Amino acid sequence: MRNQLMRTQVDIAEIIERYSDMVYKIALSYTGNKTVAEDILQDVFIKYMTASTEFQGEEHRKAWMIRVTMNEAKKHFRSCWNKRKIPLEDIYSFEDQEKHEIFYAVMELPIQYRSIIHLYYYEELSVKEISRLTKMKENTVTSRLYRGRKLLKEILEVEYEFG
Fold first, then answer.
1. CATH code that applies to domain 92-163
2. Residues 59, 63, 64: CA angle, nearest 5 degrees
3. In this structure, are residues 106 and 117 in contact, taking their beta carbons and an 8 Å threshold?
4. DSSP for 63-95?
5. Which of 4, 9, 99, 117 is in Cβ range 3.0-4.6 Å of 148 for a Cys bridge?
6. What are the residue ranges spanned by the domains of the chain?
7. Is the pLDDT of residue 90 over 60?
8. Average per-residue pLDDT in the chain?
9. Looking at domain 1-89, does it have CATH number 1.10.1740.10?
10. pLDDT tens for residues 66-75?
11. What are 93-111's pLDDT values in tens digits?
12. Mean pLDDT of 128-157
């Protein structure tokens, strides 16, 4: 009976392989801390293993993973253990230096813009999907995308003397 709630080992291994990179990157975009992102990654997969949720397909499972990751990241900020900060060094390896610089500029954005920009560009979610996952109105998501892009442009212009 206990195993009815537990996922099979094969299922878990497949899901970890498929979603660990995405979960880690979302957690990192929220926290800006490699160690905390790794902790969140573990917490998300523990929740997955014990969840009784029946998924209607991969899109439902992916949405669940993103939502749980965002919730775990938010829980981290409410925790008193979030005092340590580790610089974002050697977290991503980008072949293209420009992508590397843009990623670091995105990480400088305030969280309300950074998370939306990350979900839209790095996870390739639509405004509608982001709206559903974050429980924000589509207009709010669109507005934050606009403002986030505007801030990102300003950061890049100042730091890299574009424009």
1. 1.10.10.10
2. 115
3. yes
4. HHHHHHHHHHHHHHHHSTT--------SSS--S
5. 117
6. 1-89, 92-163
7. no
8. 80
9. yes
10. 999 988 988 8
11. 556 667 777 877 888 888 8
12. 91
